[in-house]
Design brief:
The protein has 252 residues and is of the alpha/beta class. The protein has 2 domains: 7-112 and 183-251, Rossmann fold, CATH 3.40.50; 117-169, no CATH class. It has helices at 21-27, 52-68, 83-94, 117-124, 134-142, 148-155, 171-176, 178-182, 210-219, 235-238, 240-247, and strands at 7-10, 33-36, 76-81, 99-105, 158-161, 164-167, 197-202, 223-228. Strands 2-1-3-4-7-8 form a 6-stranded parallel β-sheet, sandwiched between helices. Strands 5-6 form a two-stranded antiparallel ribbon. Helix 2 (52-68) packs across helix 3 and helix 5 crosses helix 6. The longest helix is centred in the N-terminal third of the chain and has 17 residues, at 52-68. It starts with 6 loop residues before the first strand and ends in a 5-residue tail after the last helix.
Length: 252
C-alpha cells in the first residue's frame, strides 16, 4: 500500500457507508479507505442532537482515535457527499491541520430551502409492524416517490430485526433536526480553508450553482469545480466510472 494519506468517505442524508462501497473498493487499490456511518444513520449510534458541529466532532473523534492508535497519521483526505460534504467542510474549516485534500460532492456551504418533507412522509407512511416484505415497503414508498432509483436507495435503510421490519435511521431525530441539516453553521470568525478542494456536482442537480459558487470560494479560495452533466444529486451512484475518473487523479 503506497504511503498516501488515508481517505475518509462521508455519506449523505438518508444514506450509509454501504452506498459508497463500490467507490471505496476502487480507491482502496491505492489508498487506505474508511467509510463511516454518520450519527443517526447506518450502524452508528442514535442521538437527539444532530447538527454539523456535532457530526464533525464525531469524525474528529474517529480521526484522533486512529492517530492515537498509530493506525493513521494526519492530515487525512475526505470525500463528503451532500450532508457528508457539509460535515467535511465544517471539519476542514475548524481543524484545517487535519485535512489534506477535500472532495465535496454536490453540495455547497449554504442553506437550502428543500426540507425533505416528501421523503420523510414516505418513510413514515410505511406500516413497519404489518409489512411482510421489502416489496411491500417499496409499494408504500411508490405512492409518494415515483423514482425507482431513489426508492431503492431509501430501502437500503430497511432491516428485519426482532421479528419485524425497522428503519436503521433515527427518523425522529432527523425530522426534528432537518433545519440544521439543510442549513450551514455560521462561519463568522473562521478563517478560509487554504488547501485544495474539489467540488464535483451533477449537471442535472441544482445544489451547486453560479450563485453559491461565489460564497463557496469565499470559504475555500482554492476550490475547483467539475460537473458531471449526465448525473443528478447521487452522481457517484449514477455515473461511478466518470466520478472515479475525476477523483482518482486528485488523490495521487
Amino acid at each position: 500500500m503506497p504511503a498516501t494519506a488515508p481517505i475518509i468517505i462521508l455519506h449523505g442524508l438518508f444514506g450509509s457507508n454501504r452506498n459508497w462501497h463500490p467507490i471505496a473498493r476502487s480507491l482502496s487499490e491505492h489508498h487506505t479507505v474508511y467509510t463511516l456511518d454518520l450519527r443517526n444513520h447506518g450502524k452508528s449510534p442514535h442521538s437527539d442532537i444532530m447538527d454539523y458541529p456535532s457530526m464533525a466532532d464525531d469524525v474528529l473523534a474517529f480521526i484522533e482515535n486512529k492517530i492515537t492508535r498509530q493506525e493513521i497519521t494526519a492530515p487525512v483526505n475526505i470525500i463528503g457527499h451532500s450532508m457528508g460534504g457539509k460535515v467535511a467542510m465544517w471539519l476542514a474549516l475548524n481543524h484545517p491541520e487535519l485535512v489534506q485534500k477535500l472532495v465535496v460532492v454536490d453540495i455547497a456551504p449554504v442553506t437550502y430551502q428543500h426540507d425533505f418533507s416528501d421523503v420523510l412522509a414516505a418513510f413514515n407512511a410505511v406500516p413497519l409492524t404489518t409489512i411482510q416484505s421489502r416489496q411491500e415497503a417499496d409499494e408504500y414508498l411508490s405512492q409518494a416517490i415515483s423514482q425507482v432509483d431513489l426508492r431503492q436507495f431509501l430501502l437500503q435503510n430497511l432491516q428485519f430485526k426482532g421479528g419485524q421490519y425497522r428503519w436503521r435511521l433515527n427518523l425522529q431525530s432527523i425530522q426534528h433536526s432537518i433545519a440544521n441539516i439543510t442549513a450551514f453553521p455560521d462561519t463568522q470568525g473562521l478563517q478560509p480553508f487554504l488547501r485544495r478542494v474539489l467540488f464535483v456536482g451533477g449537471g442535472q442537480s441544482d445544489y451547486i450553482n453560479k450563485s453559491n459558487r461565489q460564497l463557496t470560494r469565499a470559504l475555500f479560495p482554492k476550490a475547483s469545480f467539475s460537473m458531471i452533466k449526465s448525473a443528478g444529486h447521487w452522481l457517484h451512484a449514477e455515473q461511478p466510472e466518470i466520478f472515479k475518473a475525476l477523483i482518482e487523479p486528485y488523490f495521487e
